[in-house]
Specification:
The protein is of the alpha+beta class. The protein has a domain at 46-98. It has helices at residues 2-19, 29-33, 47-54; strands at 59-60, 69-73, 77-82, 85-91. The protein has a 4-stranded antiparallel β-sheet, with no helix packed on it.
């Protein structure tokens, strides 16, 4: 009986140790948004103001949904519009070469 109890304790501790192992993904704070974040179009800015400030986008995507959401892609960021005003600007992920 004592041997069985020791065996169960050993097996359960091995199982518990196996579940405690995990990988951690670490992204440095400086790489999460970049230093260019303050130079992106801010919320509420119009189509015309974005073109005046950042030029013509590399690509304009057609409006989707109701209210219409439009995306403009620049070299390093994308701008999302609701109707004709910015709702968000996001940096495009560029993977580092291996």
């Amino acid at each position: 009986m004592k041997t069985l109890l020791h065996g169960l304790v050993l097996v359960s501790s091995m199982l518990a140790a196996g579940t405690l192992h995990a990988d951690t993904l670490s992204i440095p704070v400086g790489e999460q948004s970049g230093s260019q974040a303050t130079s992106w179009p801010q919320r509420g800015v119009s189509f015309d103001a974005v073109v005046r400030g950042w030029g013509e986008p590399a690509r304009r995507h057609a409006a989707v949904g109701q209210p219409p959401i439009t995306r403009w892609d620049y070299d390093s960021f994308s701008v999302y519009f609701e109707s004709s005003h910015v709702i968000d600007s996001v940096r495009q992920h560029k993977p580092k070469a291996p």
